[in-house]
């Protein structure tokens, strides 16, 4: 799931693909394992194979180390199998959903250490690009780092913060932070820049682009800057935010955001590709 429900969900120009009549009140549903065809499993197998081959030198070592915990590579994993390991590692579990869900139910699940995973998979003709998150994006992109204790705690804190933001009318600002960290975050590691964001890690093209291309700009993560920055949902990102380590992400977001929301509310948003006066973009080779 993307965590940007109001932004994506509210503006969809076509109905979402999932069958929401299968979902209970909290929007979760059982993984419909029997509905997967051999072609579906094959799509997952091919996506996994291609994407895992691209990771060295581009993906965060935290992600590479955790990926085997997902289990099956040659078919769509059963959520229950993943959960046996995930519960033991960090107390998280994954729950099935029919697709993107509204923000408050999304935040409630995260606050309870439940990560919503879309259960259906893209059609073979959508192999390169899909507009809605599917089971490959959600599982491959998001779930490995839920095995990491720092990210596990960060995403739960984000869920709790989301419930508060919903009451303060600040979901848009908070969603931008999610977008620029959990979905499209970069991290500085021993060998240089690496990706830890799920939207990057599940994309064959953006993985190399985000880490190596001279085109996009990369800025050190600042809460204020990220919360004001608009983003594109249908192209590679123009701006990426870089952290020094996972603990920095947790520490940066530990404070109560209420005063920050109040301060940012009066400030203009920043275009996805803008560089403000005085800002210096990082070099791609920076390590
Ligand atoms: N500390 C934030 C608040 O008080 C919540 C939060 C935690 C947001 C972690 C994002 C990530 O609202
Ligand atoms: Fe996502």
Describe this structure in words.
It is a single chain. The protein has helices at 5-9, 38-54, 61-66, 79-90, 103-111, 135-146, 149-168, 171-183, 198-201, 204-212, 223-228, 246-252, 258-265, and strands spanning 93-97, 114-118, 186-189, 192-195, 217-220, 239-243. The protein is of the alpha/beta class. The strands form two sheets. Strands 4-3-6-5 form a four-stranded mixed β-sheet. A two-stranded parallel sheet has the order 1-2. A hairpin with a 2-residue loop joins strand 3 and strand 4. Helix 5 (103-111) packs antiparallel against helix 7 (149-168), helix 7 runs antiparallel to helix 8 (171-183) and helix 7 packs parallel to helix 12 (246-252). It is globular, with a radius of gyration of 18 Å. The relative contact order is 0.14. Mean pLDDT is 93; it is low at 1-11. The structure holds phenylalanine and fe (iii) ion (FE). Phenylalanine binds at residues 154, 157-158, 161, 164, 177, 253-257.
Q: What's the SSE blueprint?
A:
Elements: H1 5-9, H2 38-54, H3 61-66, H4 79-90, E1 93-97, H5 103-111, E2 114-118, H6 135-146, H7 149-168, H8 171-183, E3 186-189, E4 192-195, H9 198-201, H10 204-212, E5 217-220, H11 223-228, E6 239-243, H12 246-252, H13 258-265
The chain binds phenylalanine and fe (iii) ion.
């Amino acid at each position: 799931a993307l965590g940007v429900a109001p932004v994506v969900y509210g503006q969809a120009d076509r109905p979402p693909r999932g069958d929401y009549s299968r979902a209970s009140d909290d929007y979760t549903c059982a993984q419909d394992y029997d509905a997967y065809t051999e072609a579906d499993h094959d799509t997952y197998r091919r996506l996994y194979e291609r994407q895992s081959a691209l990771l060295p030198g581009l993906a965060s070592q935290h992600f590479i180390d955790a990926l085997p915990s997902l289990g099956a590579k040659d078919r769509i994993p059963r959520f229950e199998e993943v959960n046996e390991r995930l519960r033991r590692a960090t107390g998280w579990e994954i729950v099935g959903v029919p697709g993107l869900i509204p923000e408050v139910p999304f935040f409630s699940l995260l606050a309870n250490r439940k990560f919503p995973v879309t259960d259906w998979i893209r059609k073979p003709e959508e192999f390169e690009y899909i507009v809605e998150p599917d089971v490959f994006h959600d599982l491959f992109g998001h779930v490995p780092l839920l095995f990491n204790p720092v990210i596990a705690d960060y995403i739960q804190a984000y869920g709790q913060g989301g419930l508060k933001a919903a009451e303060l009318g600040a979901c848009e600002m908070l969603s931008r932070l999610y977008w620029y960290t959990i979905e499209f975050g970069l991290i500085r590691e021993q060998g240089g820049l690496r990706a830890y964001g799920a939207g990057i890690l599940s994309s064959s093209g953006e993985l190399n682009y985000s880490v190596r291309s001279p085109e996009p700009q990369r800025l050190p993560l600042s809460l204020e800057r990220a919360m004001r920055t608009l983003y594109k949902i249908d192209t590679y990102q123009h701006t990426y935010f870089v952290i020094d380590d996972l603990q920095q992400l947790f520490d940066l977001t530990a404070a109560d955001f209420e005063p920050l929301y109040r301060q940012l509310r009066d400030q203009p948003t920043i275009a996805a590709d803008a560089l403000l006066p005085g800002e210096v973009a990082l070099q791609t080779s920076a390590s």
